[in-house]
């Protein structure tokens, strides 16, 4: 403004003495000149100023010209001056004097350690090749400073430095991070009905402590979550409906890098629930809806107390809990959705009773509307898999009343096929007509399902060997499965082929045909190497009234041969050449598991019976029964909120498996009776070597590839408890506890004497099939003298999951 005033003063007074007889000569300049420009051309400067020769000048015109030139960002200084050549000359020259800004040649950030350099550089808004803009430098400094404060570095300092690069300059933002701000103390004021220490425990922000892991580092996002969610939820769960956070103060000590956080709260009265009222319900009676009422005027049961202890919540009582009230409302909404009333409105109302009684009455105002009927079910994205194969997994069909649970189960069933990338997008719904009917759209994305693998090897004493394998679980895109596997070598000759059709000619009947020629990897001391040749056909039928249960019948015939020598070249002392076994089998399976192959929820229940010999023929007559129970419960979901990500799932699994053989298995004992220990051949029990658990107890004579006749029994029982973390459909980590035993006869069964093992493991799905590794500790192992000798055992698994 001062420069503009001087310019106008010069224009008006006509500074040369010789021009006093021609006042105001500069107010209408004859020409315009530019001084001080190097990079920006004269014509560009004049054009940007908006000034023209012969135009009359005024204060607003000159003010606008200077503002426009500054607005280009090319100049640090702009002034407009008047020049009068001589008194005898009537013309005047208007001079635009400028000082140009340097061009940015390089922008860099130095001194970053706690935050990656790239993350900090993303906050810099300066552009290389553009003039230096002090305002943008200030903005970049503020953005970097905000980034560090969000990470808890309140003591960070950012200093810009300029270096000459020829005709350009380099801008360096030098960062001095300092130490991360630590919370030395957390003080809560104003609490009366609750302990302030409990408020601090409910927060994620914690003060530093004695132990090294209690650093007390401050995180602004976590602190904001504490103030906006954690603390209000804490008081809402305890009936403090009128709770307010009046003030939060952070007292920072810059010299020590520590801060004291002080919170001032106002609890208000603790409200109790006076009663429930339900209005507007017609489809469900009041008694059924009242069953979801979460508050009871009674003494909590032992189960409710235990649940509250595990979830770290108050026990059930008549104290109003906003969290439980909202959860109960959601359960009522789900109840209506499962009966097709997806447009039902459940409005939870909380009203304070008049007076000072600190009692609230709660009410559900319900507007049911009309049930939604499924108009269409569309499947999009299946380029290879036929649609009928996918529709077999649906529990909803057009014309059904919409049901949320069946929709979720259909979504999980499609994911369990294993033919599409997971997690599948949740099904979309869209209105179909004005009556409120809806269309449901499932979106899938195909993934590679089949694999071919082959290889060769050469070993000392074993000669040249190899393997060829083909597995396609979605043959022809019709959900049929075909698999061929051949392993060959000097002592190995295994061939397996199978074909499975889950829907014969579009029906609900399934079938599986298997043929095999298998040579066991282990020797039985007095029998040598064993070889099996056989075939089996299995047919499945749906169980009436259940989508999850199937009944199977099977028939198989097998030939077994002993005495062919083992890996050590020893011949059997007693052989069986061409002994036949004829088997008729029945089994019933109910499977509701989800997120296969690493289940996170659902159950598996199966019972199987096999009848051998007798009227069926064959050398041995016996019956074989097995049963298996598995139960999985989802404990928690971790993360997965970002678009395109999937949550980690923490799950608990309980399983039990048992079996018994009645009759004489004769030469088929090694495949039809039971062995225990390891994970490769018999019934698995981690923490113990293969074949080490016998009907006579633990033995140290067992080897990975050698078994004794006494290693086999006619009854067994195993159980497993595990906590697993499912990262995705290809990776699973677990901690487990196994227990089991084996008995010579079914009547010897004694569940009080079990061998125990515990450990942890990892499982993955590779192109070669399922792979796993477990490290387990066998608690009941003995040494050669029969003394306790517990130790760790490493197990490798191929093609088997627990």
TrEMBL record:
<keyword id="KW-0998">Cell outer membrane</keyword>
<dbReference type="InterPro" id="IPR000184">
    <property type="entry name" value="Bac_surfAg_D15"/>
</dbReference>
<dbReference type="InterPro" id="IPR023707">
    <property type="entry name" value="OM_assembly_BamA"/>
</dbReference>
<dbReference type="GO" id="GO:0009279">
    <property type="term" value="C:cell outer membrane"/>
</dbReference>
<protein>
    <recommendedName>
        <fullName>Outer membrane protein assembly factor BamA</fullName>
    </recommendedName>
</protein>
<keyword id="KW-0732">Signal</keyword>
<keyword id="KW-1134">Transmembrane beta strand</keyword>
<dbReference type="Pfam" id="PF07244">
    <property type="entry name" value="POTRA"/>
</dbReference>
<feature type="signal peptide">
    <location>
        <begin position="1"/>
        <end position="19"/>
    </location>
</feature>
<keyword id="KW-0677">Repeat</keyword>
<dbReference type="Pfam" id="PF01103">
    <property type="entry name" value="Omp85"/>
</dbReference>
<keyword id="KW-0472">Membrane</keyword>
<dbReference type="InterPro" id="IPR039910">
    <property type="entry name" value="D15-like"/>
</dbReference>
<keyword id="KW-0812">Transmembrane</keyword>
<feature type="domain" description="POTRA">
    <location>
        <begin position="102"/>
        <end position="178"/>
    </location>
</feature>
<dbReference type="InterPro" id="IPR010827">
    <property type="entry name" value="BamA/TamA_POTRA"/>
</dbReference>
<dbReference type="GO" id="GO:0071709">
    <property type="term" value="P:membrane assembly"/>
</dbReference>
<dbReference type="InterPro" id="IPR034746">
    <property type="entry name" value="POTRA"/>
</dbReference>
